[in-house]
Design goal:
The complex is a heterodimer. Chain A is α/β, with parallel strands linked by helices. The longest helix of chain A has 15 residues. Chain A contains eleven helices and eight strands. In chain A, α4 crosses α5. Helices cover 32% and strands 16% of the residues of chain A. Chain A has an eight-stranded mixed beta sheet with strand order 2-1-3-4-6-5-8-7, sandwiched between helices. Chain B is α/β, with parallel strands linked by helices. In chain B, the strands form four sheets. A seven-stranded mixed beta sheet of chain B has the order 9-8-10-11-13-12-19, with helices on both faces. A six-stranded mixed beta sheet of chain B has the order 2-3-1-4-5-6. In chain B, α3 packs across α4 and α7 packs across α8. The chains are: A alpha/beta, B alpha/beta. Chains A and B meet through β1, β2, α3, α5 and α11 of A and β7, α7, β8, α9 and α10 of B. Chain A: This is 2-oxoacid:ferredoxin oxidoreductase subunit beta. Chain A: Pfam families: PFO_beta_C, TPP_enzyme_C. Chain A: GO terms for molecular function: iron-sulfur cluster binding; metal ion binding; oxidoreductase activity, acting on the aldehyde or oxo group of donors, iron-sulfur protein as acceptor.
Chain lengths: 287, 584
Amino acid sequence: MSSDVRFTDFKSDKQPTWCPGCGDFGTMNGMMKALANTGNDPDNTFVVAGIGCSGKIGTYMHSYALHGVHGRALPVGTGVKLANPDLEVMVAGGDGDGYSIGAGHFVHAVRRNVDMTYVVMDNRIYGLTKGQASPTSRKDFETSTTPEGPQQPPVNPLALALASGATFIAQSFSTDAQRHAEIVQEAIEHDGFGFVNVFSPCVTFNDVDTYDYFRDNLVDVAEEGHDRTDYDAAKEKILDASKEYQGVIWQSEKSIPYSEKHGVDADMSQIDDGAPEGAMDLVREFY
Amino acid sequence: MPADFNWAIGGEAGDGIDSTGKIFAQALSRAGRHVFTSKDFASRIRGGYTAYKVRTAVDPVQSVVDRLDVLIALTPRTIEENLDELHDGSVIIYDGERTTMENVEIPEGMIGLNVPLKRLAEEAGGAIMRNVVALGAACEVADFPIENLDSALEKRFGSKGKALVDNNKEAARKGRDYVADEYDHDFDYELETTDSDYVLLNGDEAIGMGAIAAGCKFYAGYPITPATDVMEYLTGRIEQFGGHVVQAEDELSAINIALGAARAGARSMTATSGPGIDLMAETFGLVATSETPLVVVDVMRSGPSTGMPTKQEQGDLNMMLYGGHGEIPRFVLGPTTISECFWKTVEAFNLAEKYQTPVYIAADLSLAVTEQTFPPETFDMDEVEIERGKVVDEESIEEWQNEKGQFKPHAITDDGVSPRAFPGTAEGAHMSTGLEHDELGRRTEDTEMRVEQVDKRNRKVETAREEENWEPREFGDPDSENLVISWGSNEGAMEEAIEFLEEDRVDVRFLSVPYLFPRPDLTAEVESAENVIVVECNATGQFADVVEHDTLSRVDRLNKYDGVRFKADELADDIKATLQEADQ
């Protein structure tokens, strides 16, 4: 780690192929700023991503990274962080990746409370497969595969996280650059699993959840004087479907990260030249 | 043939069959006798027939046979289930005072010992010790000094206090004395003891122990029969060596968590059985394409689908050789004995890291749940070698950077192996992906680069073919015109079958193949033999297909897929029959 790291050091020389105007540009820039602001550099940072537009992020950022299979980014991040707690681990995904195919992993990653940051680029649509309904699409949102809308209520990711025992729940808006970077930074600094759902509009396929929509409907919980450590207040905000909230909505004061609970604090990449000392005791156990 | 003794305890699951069997097996092992155990169990917690069988001799034993000398029957069904293994003079110990055993009929020619197990156990301090009373009775029948049982009882119950140990010792003596007093009979058995010290362990435990020996620090898995013992073994032990076990939410997560740990530089492993391998298949391709070293253990059981979860089969070979979409370079190692479960696991980690490739360990239920005795030096930790392959550090990384100073984790090399930088290495930041990529790891659809990367990854297999040892293990008569080939847990039964066959003046040459991919070229051996039989526990002859493919010769197949492992005497008969048929 060095203090002279700039956020642009996290930028690769690969030009993004996201559509012009895509919310993911802002989401990524905020992540890079947050990483630099928290004193990380590309060589101690590991970014994991799944499949979809969000999954491309590892290509456009410069760090250690793995671009995995659809929905499984959180398990990969879990393995990276537990095997080397010195690394700053950031997992990025989309709403399909995280709340559909990866929903099971989301619940269990939240429960484990591994000290990493999970940023979900929520555009409420499947973008890369060209516009099908996602788990966060509105009930009446018409798409090529749901001509009359999904007719199912959307997943409430924040509620899912809260019900799973999350210790940090936040939401941000990718184009509100300063605020978004601040929120991701808080997630990084949180001692445990930091979850940030980011409104990251899809300008090509979603003409409902647009920049204008979010600008008009977004309420910053910080401006409302919300106490993030008040569980009941957090629950109320999270279940309030009438507004879109931004900010840190819930942060547990009792968060004990997985590594502390289980005593996992060593860099496991270094091993002995032969069997570890004392290994013969393993054989003697079978007498 | 070693002068062996075959003993079993059977009853309902929940009757303490397993722990009782294990106590007796440990007593024999500690008395310097070789032991080979097998389990017959159903996929349920309580109820259903279950049995623990112990074969023992002074000479090494490595299989089961079709014979039972002493049977402790806790239920009438236990006798029915084992009728074909019981013989004239077999001893059946049962508790005739138990309501369900009151009217039990001892088959003609066999010796029934009606021992009031429960009543004697109560006299010793509690009905729960009735199985131990039975062990004492068995000691008397087998002429096995009961003092040998004491240390096994101490090991089993020592942590629960001296009183409990003493009560159990007393219970055993009551069983012994009852038989001695009530049945004035010479049972013809005498279990000799020796000064040798053996260890007694099963294949799952050997895999777990091999992993720790090889420096594996990270394990993620999801419980599944018969692979769960690997996770249970590692839990609590790997931590003592600075490692960690995660019980994942499913197999998809398990292999991805293990992959993450491997990317962070840890030696990492997951273990599962066939259904779990299916779920892991997609990520297996990612592991290979991202060139991550990972060990994946498949403890095979009867399939397809849920099949028979507690029964033996070697049905996943094709899955391990070919499973996954696209073409995936990989190694598949198949331990043939319990001790080889240890050594092949050590080897798997070295191959995985040297070649940055996923490695399957193809174990099976018979290896996993069977316990066998070994001299402790079989697992000599000083013999363990660690090879981590082309890991670069901050100095050496420079030679693997392009003109812009970017690290090339997928550099095209002559041997197919690229450099590897653990995260945290300065100037090493890079991405890897399951997408086809260039030397930097970035997505590409460039036709030339695609071909170069595919060739590079496949070249690792070719390099390994040349640099590593893929030889089979050879037994029997090297000049015989009868060649038997097998893989996996059949080796022990086959090795003893050779001795049965010798008695009948049938000679065979036997090759046991521990490497399934890459594997030895058996063309010369197959061509020089008159008769070739491939022995395996599946219906279609998956390995026989592979041998035919490799050698361009037709082979005979001997397949067993009833869920039960090969028994040595039965296998000898089957081979004789196959040879006779071939001669006609």
